[in-house]
Amino acid sequence: MECKKVKFADEKSIQFYIKKLRDTSVRIKKPVAGYLCSHCLCWHLTSRTQKDDIQMEKYRATIKNQKELIEQLQSSIRKWTNKYNEIKNKN
């Protein structure tokens, strides 16, 4: 898998570029950190903060809980549908 993001050789280069962008960029959302990519083994910039990551984890947990609830409800519906059909077929 080839990364399409800008590649940096090391964390020092990332920090230099982040400082440069902080001082010169007019963008609203600016890079705040770098990370080592497990796909290409180069460094990339990210504008996501730790707060963003925490918020995303809460969102994922909520979705997981909702999916589990939906599965439980679907199971109950199947159970009651089967019981209904059994009773209907007896009569």
Give the arrangement of secondary structure elements.
Layout: H1 11-24, E1 33-36, E2 43-46, H2 50-90
Antiparallel strand pairs: 1-2
Structural description of this entry:
The chain is mainly α and 91 residues long. The chain folds into 2 domains: 1-48, no CATH class; 50-91. Helices cover 60% and strands 9% of the residues. The chain has 2 helices and 2 strands. It has a two-stranded antiparallel ribbon with strand order 1-2. The chain is rod-shaped, with a radius of gyration of 25 Å. It starts with 10 loop residues before the first helix and ends with a helix. 2% of the residues are buried. The model has no long low-confidence stretch (mean pLDDT 87).
Largest sheet: 2 strands, antiparallel
What portion of residues belong to β-strands? 5-15%
Strand order of the largest sheet: 1-2
- Class by SSE composition: mainly alpha
Q: Summarize this, please?
A:
This protein has helices spanning 11-24, 50-90, and strands at 33-36, 43-46. With 91 residues, it is mostly helical.
List the defining traits of the structure above.
91 residues; mainly alpha; 2 domains; two-stranded antiparallel sheet; 2 strands; rod-shaped
